[in-house]
């Protein structure tokens, strides 16, 4: 019973995160609506953490019951009550997520203007080993292994030239109307004990790397109010992860340019 419950919670966590970042990666929306959706996502995340605490508490009580010699029926009754509470809260969480999805339903990607599109394509051509550019999605993809040292979230000096060039594009007149969303990704390798002190999970590492890139762009003059940072952890791989989880293609930072229509 514990394993299925944990699976449900993980799926809910992923759904909440996917709904939030989908705004950045598949939609164009005003900053005000971004802020509203961001606050909603934070509330959903808090609710999911509450579910995790409830489940952990149920498991702890089950262990105590066994130590005290309580009957199987007593233990089952208690866990069934906890299960009912979890189901009720899960139902409310799913209802909240559906409401959030309805808010996002009208969003759409707008093509980049020709000047900015050409500037980003030229930027990728200048740094072919580091950057890939997708014109259809208005996205730059930075290879994390060339942008960061393993398990760290400080931008390497070797990647700074490309970020300076990117900042020049983002600060140009043609790109002035875009909002920038920076999204971090990792592979599925387990976080090492040394890394865990700074980045407890792959989700933390992906978010911290996105924040680091956003911070460097801010230092280079890109307006803070135009930029957003988010992370997917290991949950959006480009290719199937290897058995060890060590999959360089999945370690990347993506930068999207978005603009509201009209």
Brief characterization of the structure:
The chain has 262 residues and is an alpha+beta fold. The chain is built from eight helices and five strands. The chain folds into two domains: 2-104; 114-258, 2-Layer Sandwich (60s Ribosomal Protein L30, Chain: A).
Structure, explained:
A five-stranded mixed beta sheet has the order 1-2-5-3-4. Residues 5-29 and 104-108 have low confidence and may be disordered. Strand 1 (131-134) and strand 2 (139-143) form a beta hairpin. The chain has helices spanning 2-26, 31-68, 72-104, 114-126, 144-147, 157-170, 193-196, 202-219, and strands spanning 131-134, 139-143, 179-185, 227-231, 252-258. 57% of the residues lie in helices and 11% in strands. The protein starts with a helix and ends with a strand. The chain is elongated and about 70 Å long. The longest helix has 38 residues, at 31-68.
Topology overview:
Layout: H1 2-26, H2 31-68, H3 72-104, H4 114-126, E1 131-134, E2 139-143, H5 144-147, H6 157-170, E3 179-185, H7 193-196, H8 202-219, E4 227-231, E5 252-258
Parallel strand pairs: 3-4
Antiparallel strand pairs: 1-2, 2-5, 3-5
Keywords:
262 residues, 60s Ribosomal Protein L30, Chain: A, 2 domains, elongated
Total DSSP helices = 8
How many separate domains make up the residues?
Answer: 2
* Strands in their spatial order, largest beta sheet: 1-2-5-3-4
**What Rg, in angstroms, do the CA atoms define?**
21 Å
- What overall form do the CA principal axes indicate? elongated
End-to-end distance, in Å?
Answer: 51 Å
Strand content: 5-15%
Give the helix/strand class. alpha+beta
Q: Taking all residues together, what is the mean pLDDT?
A: 81
Order of helices and strands: HHHHEEHHEHHEE
The level 1 CATH classification of the largest domain is Alpha Beta
**Assigned CATH architecture of the largest domain:** 2-Layer Sandwich
- What is the subunit arrangement here? single chain
The description of the largest β-sheet is: 5 strands, mixed
Uncertain stretches: 5-29, 104-108
Instruction: Count every beta strand, where a strand is a DSSP E run of 2 or more residues.
Output: 5
Helical amount: 55-70%
The CATH superfamily of the largest domain is known as OmpA-like domain
- CATH fold title of the largest domain: 60s Ribosomal Protein L30, Chain: A
């Amino acid at each position: 019973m514990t394993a299925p419950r944990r699976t449900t919670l993980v799926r809910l966590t992923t759904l909440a995160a996917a709904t939030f970042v989908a705004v950045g990666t598949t939609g164009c929306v005003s900053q005000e609506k971004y802020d509203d959706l961001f606050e909603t996502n934070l509330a959903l995340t808090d609710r999911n953490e509450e579910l995790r605490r409830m489940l952990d508490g149920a498991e702890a009580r089950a262990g105590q019951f066994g130590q005290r010699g309580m009957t199987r029926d007593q233990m089952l009754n208690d866990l069934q009550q906890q299960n009912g509470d979890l189901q009720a809260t899960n139902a409310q969480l799913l209802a909240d997520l559906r409401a959030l999805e309805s808010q996002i339903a009208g969003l759409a990607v707008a093509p980049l203007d020709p000047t900015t599109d050409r500037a980003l394509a030229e930027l990728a051509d200048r740094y072919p080993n580091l950057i890939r550019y997708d014109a259809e999605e208005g996205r730059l993809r930075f290879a994390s292994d060339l942008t960061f040292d393993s398990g760290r979230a400080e931008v390497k000096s070797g990647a700074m030239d490309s970020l300076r060039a990117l900042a020049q594009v983002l600060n140009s007149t043609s790109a002035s109307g875009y909002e920038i969303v920076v999204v971090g990704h990792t592979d599925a390798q387990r976080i090492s004990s040394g890394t865990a002190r700074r980045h407890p999970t792959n989700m933390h590492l992906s978010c911290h790397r996105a924040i680091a890139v956003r911070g460097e762009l801010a230092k280079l003059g890109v307006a803070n109010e135009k930029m957003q940072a988010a992370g997917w952890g290991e949950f959006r791989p480009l290719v199937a992860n290897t058995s060890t989880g060590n999959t360089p293609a999945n370690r990347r930072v993506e930068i999207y340019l978005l603009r509201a229509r009209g």
